[in-house]
């Protein structure tokens, strides 16, 4: 799932190319991607793009009085075209969800791999019309020390759960929460209210800031590959921890998994993984 650093990279790349350009046409490739009907998507045709920005994990294409809210879900992404394909779009065929044509001849797609189609676009007069945006918590790179300390003190949930809750703190997902907790030497199962908030917030800023800097000048086609290269524990089950040399372990869930280093984060102990335990019996 695209997280704060990747979406910031999109804002930087796309914004530098589309601001001042005009929408000439939009094509829908997956009907479920469009979550609003009023105003209709056709309302942006002929409009000048005034900006690109981010809220949490959402990319926002801005017009005068309208916002196109793009949320990528787990497998969605933006594909940039220096010359946008002009052929007909076949509804429901392949990963294409939305294609945007620009007056310059360039354009972009919002696409989503896999059979589950959860990526979404919404055209609204006010971005808070999108419930997920209206309920988004403070941004992970702008939340202040007191806000973060209060957030942790009020929760007895596991710290990884808190970091991924977009209503509490926006922009962090599965991958970067693994990286943050590894850097902070915290178990993902540690109760949030027992964590040193100031120390963890410094790690959050450091990990996300470094990732954003590494990705910020890349094209969308290169962002995901560079992100993976920068990860030390996430997605690296069975590999060697670059910090302590322990073997990176995993906890599996129905639709995702987390990775951690027992040596750095849990005093050498492996966390309970009921799914894997059942498979090994």
TrEMBL record:
State the organism of origin. Answer: Brevibacterium aurantiacum
> Mind telling me what this protein is named?
Fpg/Nei family DNA glycosylase
* GO MF: 8-oxo-7,8-dihydroguanine DNA N-glycosylase activity; damaged DNA binding; DNA-(apurinic or apyrimidinic site) endonuclease activity; lyase activity; zinc ion binding
Q: Which GO terms describe its biological process?
A: base-excision repair
Reaction catalysed? Answer: Hydrolysis of DNA containing ring-opened 7-methylguanine residues, releasing 2,6-diamino-4-hydroxy-5-(N-methyl)formamidopyrimidine
Q: Which PROSITE patterns match?
A: FPG_CAT, ZF_FPG_2
The family this protein is said to belong to: Belongs to the FPG family.
Going by the UniProt record, its keywords in alphabetical order are:
DNA damage, DNA repair, DNA-binding, Glycosidase, Hydrolase, Lyase, Metal-binding, Multifunctional enzyme, Zinc, Zinc-finger
Q: Which residues form the Formamidopyrimidine-DNA glycosylase catalytic domain?
A: 2-149
CDD domains linked to this entry = BaFpgNei_N_1
């Amino acid at each position: 799932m695209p997280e704060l650093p990747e979406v910031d990279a999109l804002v930087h790349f796309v914004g530098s190319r589309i601001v001042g350009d005009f929408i000439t046409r939009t094509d829908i490739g997956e009907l479920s991607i469009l979550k609003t009907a009023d105003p209709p998507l056709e309302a942006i045709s002929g409009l000048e793009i005034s900006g690109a920005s981010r809220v949490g994990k959402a990319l926002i294409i801005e017009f005068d009085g309208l916002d196109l809210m793009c949320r990528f879900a787990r497998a969605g992404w933006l594909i940039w075209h220096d010359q946008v394909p002009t052929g007909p779009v076949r509804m429901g065929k392949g990963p294409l969800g939305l294609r945007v044509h620009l007056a310059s001849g360039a354009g972009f797609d919002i696409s989503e791999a896999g059979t589950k189609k959860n990526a979404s676009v919404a055209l609204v007069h006010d971005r808070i019309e999108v419930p997920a945006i209206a309920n988004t918590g403070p941004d992970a790179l702008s939340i202040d020390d007191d806000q973060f300390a209060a957030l942790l003190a009020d929760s007895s949930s596991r710290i990884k759960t808190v970091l991924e809750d977009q209503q509490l703190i926006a922009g962090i997902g599965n991958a970067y929460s693994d990286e943050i907790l590894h850097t902070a030497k915290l178990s993902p199962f540690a109760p949030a209210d027992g964590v040193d908030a100031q120390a963890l917030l410094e790690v959050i800023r450091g990990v996300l800031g470094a990732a954003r800097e590494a990705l910020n000048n890349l094209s969308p086609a290169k962002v995901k590959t560079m992100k993976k290269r920068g990860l030390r524990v996430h997605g690296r089950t069975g590999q060697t921890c670059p910090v302590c040399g322990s073997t990176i372990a995993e906890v599996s869930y129905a639709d995702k998994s987390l990775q951690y280093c027992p040596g750095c984060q849990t005093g050498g102990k492996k966390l309970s993984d009921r799914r894997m335990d059942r498979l090994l019996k």
